[in-house]
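Page 37, continued from 36.
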């Protein structure tokens, strides 16, 4: 079995509203990109490659590259730590550098039934895929409207960041089904405990 083709137990989340923010979500509730298989599952799920694209050539260097980009995006989205402008500058420089690489070239090919489907002109490389995510981060960070819609989840112990595109900009959680449900259950338990007291 080729490296990177093993099935992964990781079920990626893609509810942050941007690919670069979905990459940040791979840190919670622990390291989710714990192997090349998990990274390949994330790449496919994020739509960086068309469905069925072979990623058997992925290796540990891909994992290191995506983790590094994830760290840089996290620094840029959350802003510089007080007194540590140098890490922000390094992160910005690295994201800009990664965004310069050529992205995978899509081509249209005939499919069964006479339609056309999207494929890549050749096997995607790590630099090309990293460039897609880095460019998404650049777009997010330089668009004042999108940047103003970036929120951090209000869920207990949830550091995830998402793009709030809800009506009235009232979204409070990274996911209503995950953190929102936990909060509703906790609120119900608090009310039930008060009623018993």
């Amino acid at each position: 079995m080729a490296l990177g083709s093993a099935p992964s137990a990781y079920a990626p989340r893609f509810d942050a509203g941007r690919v670069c923010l979905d990459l940040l979500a791979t840190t919670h509730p622990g390291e989710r990109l714990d192997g090349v298989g998990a990274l390949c599952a994330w790449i496919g799920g994020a739509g960086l490659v068309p469905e069925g694209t072979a990623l058997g050539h992925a290796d540990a260097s891909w994992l290191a590259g995506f983790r590094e980009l994830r760290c840089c995006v996290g620094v840029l989205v959350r802003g510089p730590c007080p007194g540590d402008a140098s890490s922000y500058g390094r992160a910005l420089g690295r994201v800009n550098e990664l965004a310069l690489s050529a992205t995978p070239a899509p081509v249209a090919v005939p499919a069964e039934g006479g339609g056309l489907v999207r494929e890549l002109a050749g096997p995607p490389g790590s630099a090309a895929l990293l460039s897609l995510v880095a460019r998404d981060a650049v777009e997010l960070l330089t668009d004042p409207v999108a940047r103003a819609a970036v929120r951090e989840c209000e869920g207990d112990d949830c550091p995830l960041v998402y793009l709030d595109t809800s009506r009235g900009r009232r979204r409070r959680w990274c996911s209503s089904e995950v953190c929102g449900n936990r909060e509703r259950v906790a609120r119900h338990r608090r009310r039930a405990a008060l009623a018993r007291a």
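The mean pLDDT is 86. Flag for discussion at group meeting. The first helix runs from residue 19 to 24.
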